[in-house]
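Hello,

Our lab assistant flagged a job as stuck in the queue for most of the afternoon. It eventually completed. Since we weren't sure the result was trustworthy after the delay, we are filing this so someone can double-check. Below is the sequence as submitted and the structure that was eventually returned. Let us know if re-running is recommended.
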Amino acid sequence: MKVLVADKCGFCLGVNNAIELAKKTLAHQNDVYSLGPIIHNQDVVEELAKSGLKTVDSVEQISSGTVLIRSHGATVEQLEKIKAKSLNIVDATCVLVKRLQKISQKLNEQGYKVVVIGDSNHPEVQAIVGFAKNVLVIGSKSDLHKLPTRGKWGIISQTTQSPEYFAEILAEMVKRGFSELKVINTLCSEAIKRQNSAVQLCRKVDIMFVLGGLHSANTRKLAEMCRKKNRQTFHLQNWKELDKSLLYGKNSAGVTAGASTPDRIITEFVENLRTFVSQR
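-- returned structure --
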């Protein structure tokens, strides 16, 4: 079996910066807390936990020490609570997410109804919501009825959405009543490169593997896009999760990974896959 790896996969700059910042903070400070998983990859979270990083769900669980703001950012409410408790802050928010927060705030100040195309349950989107008043999140076409029939809309997107999905939802929006529409491209170029690379590869192979956390939005998007072109697409966190029976009868396999997947997970998977195939 031929094993091919996508040209673009694995850690993005934002994720890499967040992890490096976490390691530096842990090396110099005690009682370091991450407000939610620093990235959506359980292997990385467990590795940092061994170095002392404590992951909590709320500010109320922290009485003293340092709070590491994860790559997805934090809500305005969370930041206010952290400052009120006089906790130290180390900000690992991705620069693109920070840009998105500032854009939503500016659109609101300019009188636009801020509309975010994205997953309302994702921490990145939840953080954006607090930076403007009455932000509307559109997760699918079924949410379009929530749009006001008149007024000025400022449209932005969760950074990890695909251009195709963004365009699809936007096309449905313009069919509805509005007085003014302002669209700002907030998509992550690195996520787009990974999406394009993965889709190109999945078309060439018998089976496709997408590696990354099951809660990772960009990894799930990769798997979703690949599955549309190749039904034999499987989203796995690591090599341990692979059902080896899937490989029988296959002549070629493709491997890609989300932006929060470490190189070692990709390397281990590819090496084990090649070893398993050669031993059959």
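-- support follow-up --
The delay was a queue issue, not a problem with the job. The result is valid. The two ends are 10 Å apart (CA to CA). The domain at 96-188 is CATH 3.40.1010.20 (Cobalt-precorrin-4 Transmethylase; domain 1).
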